[in-house]
Design brief:
By secondary structure, this protein is mostly helical. Helices cover 67% and strands 0% of the residues.
């Protein structure tokens, strides 16, 4: 399958990856500012240490971080490696999605859904529950692009089932929120992704069943890993706290949001199987 104007599939995948780098740069802004209640559009990107607004050449995805050797050009404070990693990961996701959809127009909507998963996951790995607006905006934009592409390509089954998935996920989310209107339930992490996952899995049809099972398995495994680490911490608290790079801390960070992990794995598995 080729792109809209007949471009070869590899070319469309490469363009998607480059576009993903730019989107990844924007996701870094979202992940940093949303938990702080800041606007994602104003002011322009700035150094969180010295507050200086960055020049355009300091905002080139991945390349700027490498050129600056991971430090601010002005205050020389370290810049987290998370920034180029998020940009590179987003580019990889966009390339994978475009490859899975054979470079068709449907890739666009699913790339948006993939970017939403990355944003929500990173926000919630940092601690706070991601605002519903993040997942809702991503799901709405992704679904709109899917509808437009499906109508253009006469892929009516994708259109119908993605809408069914969205409706089912939205109803489920409404029920969960009615049981926890104040959003105080610590197990509520990941709910923001329900609508996004509904669009994604619904559009893939029967593959969604296998993907959902994979997500549940991942959920169980991460919860089990969390219990193992907590048990080890009780037995060897000093050993677990002795190193900032302890594997236990990474496991705890991931296992603390098992629903996010499960949904992300389910979506990735479904995409690979669909190919």
């Amino acid at each position: 399958m080729t792109g809209l104007r007949g471009e070869p599939e590899w070319f469309v995948i490469a363009v998607a990856a480059l576009f993903g780098l730019g989107v990844g740069s924007f996701l870094n802004v979202v992940v940093y500012r949303v938990p702080l209640g800041l606007s994602v559009s104003k002011p322009r990107s700035f150094c969180p240490t010295c507050d200086r607004q960055l020049s355009w050449w300091e905002n080139v995805p991945v390349a700027s971080w490498l050129a600056l050797r991971g430090k601010c050009h002005t205050c020389h404070e370290p810049i987290s490696a998370r920034y180029p990693l998020v940009e590179g990961a987003t580019a990889a996701v966009f390339a994978l999605v475009t490859w899975a959809w054979h470079g068709s127009l449907l890739s666009g909507g699913y790339c948006v859904l993939g970017a939403t998963v990355i944003a929500v996951s990173l926000i919630e790995l940092g601690g706070p529950r991601a605002p519903l607006s993040v997942g809702a905006t991503g799901a709405a934009l992704g679904q709109t692009l899917i509808i437009g592409a499906a109508m253009w390509l006469d892929a009516w089954s994708v259109l119908v089932w993605s809408l069914v998935g969205l409706v089912v996920a939205t109803v489920t989310l409404a029920v969960l929120r009615s049981r926890d209107p104040d959003c105080r339930d610590p197990r509520g992490h990941g709910r923001t992704l329900l609508a996004t996952a509904g669009c994604w899995l619904g559009g893939l049809g029967a593959v969604a069943v296998a993907a959902t099972v994979a997500g549940l398995v991942a959920w169980i495994l991460t919860a089990f890993a969390c219990l193992v680490v907590l048990w080890n911490r009780r037995r060897r608290p000093l050993a677990m706290e002795s190193s900032g790079r302890s594997w236990g801390r990474w496991v705890l960070a991931i296992a603390s949001v098992p629903l996010v992990t499960g949904l992300a794995v389910a979506m990735a598995v479904s995409l690979a199987v669909a190919r």
